Each structure stands twice: as C-alpha cells, then as structure tokens.
Amino acid sequence: MKNQELIPHLFRTEYRKIVSVLCRHIGFEQIDIAEDIASDTFLTASETWGLKGVPQNPAAWLYHVAKNKAKNHLQRSSIFENKIVPELKKNYSDSSEKEIDLSPENIYDSQLQMMFAVCHPSVSAEAQIGLALRILCGFGIEEIADAFLSNKDTINKRLFRAKEKLKEEKIKIELPELQEIEERLKTVLTTIYLLFNEGYYSMSANKTLRKDLCVEAIRLCNMLVENEHTDKPQVNALLSLMCFHASRFEARQNDNGEHILYEDQDKNLWNTELINKGEYFFTRATTGNKISKYHLEAAIAYWHTQKTETKEKWENILQLYNRLLQMEYSPIAALNRTFALSKANGKEEAIREAEKLNMTDNHFYFTLLGELYTGIDNNKAKLNFQNALTLAKTGSDKSAIRKKIDNL
C-alpha cells in the first residue's frame, strides 16, 4: 500500500482504538483531548514517514507515539493543575503515573465500552450515529455530513452538544452492569441498525449504496457477538440480518451505481459465504425465548437469499412482514410488504394496499407503484415513475427511473 493510501487506511482502522483507550484512561470528560492526541499522532506520522520512510510496524509506531503524547499531556496537565487547583492533585498524579495499556485486549475492551458510552440514551439517535461514525469508525466530519445530507457546521455542533451531554452525565467508559446490559443493548443495536441502513439506503454522495457504512455496522455488531456478556440472541439476529443483506451488495447496483430491483438482480452475484454466515448467526439467534424485530427482519432477508421462486417463499415473507408490522409498525416495512403481497397474491391486491399508504413524499413509494402498474396500466405506471423522478435525490436513482419510463 502506498504512503498516501496507508495513512488514511490506518486512520480508519487505528484512530478509534487510540481514542477509545485514551478515553478509558483519562475519562470521557476529556474526549476532546483524546481526539486531539490521536489526530496529532497521525499528523506526526504524515510528517515523519514522508521524511524517514514508513516504519516496519506502522500501527505499533502510532500506538507508541500516541502513548508518549498522552503521557506528556498528563504530566503538563498535572503540573498545571497542581499549582492552580491543588485539590485535584492526587487525581492527576494518579492518572499520569498509571501506565497507558495499549495491549490488544485493552484496545478491544475499550472500543466495546466506548460503544456503550456513545450510544447512551441521554443523547439523540442521530447524535449517537454521528459519534459512532466519528469515534468508533474514524469517519471525518465531512464524511459524516455527507452521510446525513448535512453540512460540516451542523455536524460539528451536533457532535459537540452530544459530547457535552455525555460529559454532564459523567458517562464512564465501561460495560453496564450485567442486569443493565439487556436494556442498554437496545440503544446500541438501534444505532448499529440505523448505521447499516444509512449505508444500505444511502442518498449521500450520489450513491445508492455505501458499503463502507454497512461494513462498519457489521464490524461493531461482530464485536458484541464476540463478548460473552453481549452475545445475546437479538445481537446475533441483527448480525444475521446484515450478513443476508450484504450478500446481495454486488447484485444490487450496476456499474453506474444505479439501484437494481430485486427481481432484476443477477443471482450469480450473491455472496454465498455471507449467506452462510447469515444462516450461522441466525441459528445462534434462535437460542433465546424472545423474538425481536431483528429476528423477523433476518428471516425475511433469509428468504430473499433463496434463489428459487416459489409460492412458499413469498407466502413466508408476507407472513413475516405481517408479524413485523404488528410488533413495530414502520411505513417502509409496510411498503416492502406490498412487494411481497404482489408476488404472493398478485399486483392488483398489492396496488390497493400500497395506495392506502399514501407515502407521497417518498420516491420508493412511487417507484413501487410504477412497477406494480407496469403491464396493467402503463399510463399510471408512467405517472408514478414521473413522481418518483421528481422526489429522487441521487443522480443514479434518477437515471434508473428514467430508464423505467423509457421502457414503458
């Protein structure tokens, strides 16, 4: 890997580890300092490696430099605080003398604990995802703004407010007590689920799919499965769901980045390894006695990985959607259900159900209606595709819809 590619790659993989470990060492209230030290470490790497060449073990070099920078900061801070705020002397002396643990075990534990800290229920879901992208995934502010279809100032303010809130709440970098884990996991899983959906239904950067966001969501969920205290059925169900969806990534968009509908996908491009992983985690998800929405969505995603078109397949998907909507209603799930309904009971019934949803601000709604009307009433199909074209946000979506209109 070339030098200009290596540092951005390491920033994505190592920044989160350095910040997590430093935060665990000095406390979440000093997260800004931890981020500054991590960023400054990469700046030093950029300057030094350009002159002296890349060290033999770049990651270890980063850890060593970050550790020294943190120790220097703590020593300076200790002197300052001892003179001005004597009552804090003992706390800072203890921190500066305590060795920073950059062992693989502590790096792993720190990231897992940071996940629970940034997904604390005291901050909004949007802020949780933003913090997760920034601190746990190493995304830049501009990338996060792009993912949220926002601007850097808004994201900076949102993250600043969220961090201030977490400081006020005195959130610690630690796993919750065992009796609290089930409850706190809900928020963590919601954040991971939303992060995956940000990538899977992306409207940012003119892309219909952002695999990088999806991969990060899968990585975070994998960390939960690998820990004995967070390896719960609902966690495995979410990981299974994401593996099934990810298995169809390559078939879901063409070379121009345009979205390809399910029935038009090349099934030979579906990733068998990810389907097998999805099945493995789904089996592990069935060990409990509770069914979460992730179980139902994973089961729906499983049936979508079955290549043979049968009545049983679409009947099962339809029934699973019915259960999902009873458990937790969402307009998007209801819209997706109408596609399964068209496959199970025919287009006419699906059109009646879809039009009841009246999602007139959603281009997926009009795109589906356009598809359902195609071959039944092409004029209505065209009208719906035109409405979808007006609402679509990405160039690739607009291009795909124009092709639908041209083919009528």
TrEMBL record:
It comes from the Bacteria. Residues 184-285 form the DUF6596 domain. Pfam families: DUF6596, Sigma70_r2. Residues 10-77 form the RNA polymerase sigma-70 region domain. This is RNA polymerase subunit sigma-24. It comes from Leptospira kobayashii. The lineage of its organism: Bacteria, Pseudomonadati, Spirochaetota, Spirochaetia, Leptospirales.
